[in-house]
Amino acid sequence: MKLAVLLCSALAVCHGAEVKQSRKFPNYFVFGVGTAAYQIEGAWNEDGKGENIWDYLTHTNPSAIVDQSNGDIACDSYHNYKRDIEMLRELGVSVYRFSVSWSRILPEGLSYYINEAGITYYNNLIDELLKYNIQPMITIYHWDLPQRLQELGGFMNPLIADWFEDYARIVFKTFGDRVKFFATFNEPSEICSGYGSLGKAPMLNETGFGDYLCARNLLLAHAKAYHLYNDEFRPTQGGVIGFILAVSSTEPLTDSEEDKFAVELYSQATWGIYTDPIYSKEGGFPKELVERVAAKSAAQGYSRSRLPDFSEEEKAFILGTSDFFGVNHYSGSYVSQTLYTSQHAIPSALDDIEMGTYAPDEWLQSASSWFQLMPNSVHIFLKLINARYPGVRIYITENGWSSREGIVDEDRVNYYRSALEGVLDALDEGINVHGYLAWSLMDNFEWMAGYSERFGLYEVDFNDPNRTRTPRKSAFIYKNIMKTRMVDHDYEPESYVMTIDEGH
Ligand code: NOJ
């Protein structure tokens, strides 16, 4: 141990990173990494897989993707999954979060025809993980809706709740004997942005309408799958099932009461709309948001609010349907209604709340235009969640940094170190965080950004038919954090050759 650390510990008066080095993650805290099917698997039409909305979008409208690429091959994990698991062993993770591709299992989306080859792929993946004591966490839906269901309206059709329930039943029935950790939906806000903007497939762009309708239908679908697991599978399988939200960090622009309320309203519109119905005391959509959308809708001449509310029965059905709060976190900003500009689409969610955000220029910019490094952002968002739902059990299901192509990733190294210090700060305050999954195991298809933005601990060479994976420095740093269960800011890898430690 360095002299400075010893002195600091003895005096207990130092600030900054060094004194914090002695803090350890508790034993119950799990570490891992995540990926998602469309982003890594490739084999888009192999062995009976059906078309999904990302296959359709990238093939019919390639210019929607920054580099006109697609996930046809991606990391080719359909063929390389054993190498992926070798990387998980190299890192020494205890949890691997991956998603199941709906159209690989049900090519038409509906449950009348099951593609056995798809089942075999996931069975092999799960068995290989368990062989090395790595706990699988399945995301049942990570944005890749079967195209056939989209043609029937997708998340605009209330029947999505039944279709999703049927699909989830197959997932529980087939994999639930070995998988004990499920999440229904990944980032509902992004799923619904596919209906309320041009930001994701299927690019419906029904702003301030499609996104709200989607929120309603998606929550009912989630609740159906939760009840199904709870009633029919949990008694024999004994696992947990939750929901995964995107939560950014927000602080008021000034100390004014208006700006403090702006944080609340912004939280309601960006994530509370999905979480209050599940985790709040009374259930239902957030009160002020409901009032604002109703008032704006009326002023715009609509005879009903564009945010269709739940019946009392539906509210009760959704309330409490999650065993944990899964959260993906990246960016942060200041918020204020004084930052509102009339440039938002009308109608739209941001126009409904008349809100604007601001990220100072000095904040480090990642390769993703939407992602700036807000100081202490991990600690801030954990406090936001805990303040809203005191004591809720939290798993950070995604967190990481985006860079451009290339092996050098000093910014990612710094990002992970300070993010994990933020988790330790939250743990010190008694916030109930139980795990951290880095995003991502390796570079992959970053949706509208194609391969132009890289989130991987391992770099993937997309020009190489073998899709060779090479560990970046951040892989060694994260490995050391998991192994020592501490954040050592001075640690430097002895070499850049990855090996599998004993016991993995
Ligand atoms: C959240 C999404 O779940 C994931 O698919 C995406 O790659 C990351 N954010 C980074 O944008």
TrEMBL record:
Residues 1-16 form the signal peptide. Keywords: Glycoprotein, Glycosidase, Hydrolase, Signal. GO terms for biological process: carbohydrate metabolic process. The keyword Transmembrane does not apply. GO terms for molecular function: beta-glucosidase activity. The keyword Signal applies. It comes from the Eukaryota. Homodimer. Belongs to the glycosyl hydrolase 1 family. This is Myrosinase 1-like. It comes from Trichoplusia ni (Cabbage looper). The gene is LOC113492042.
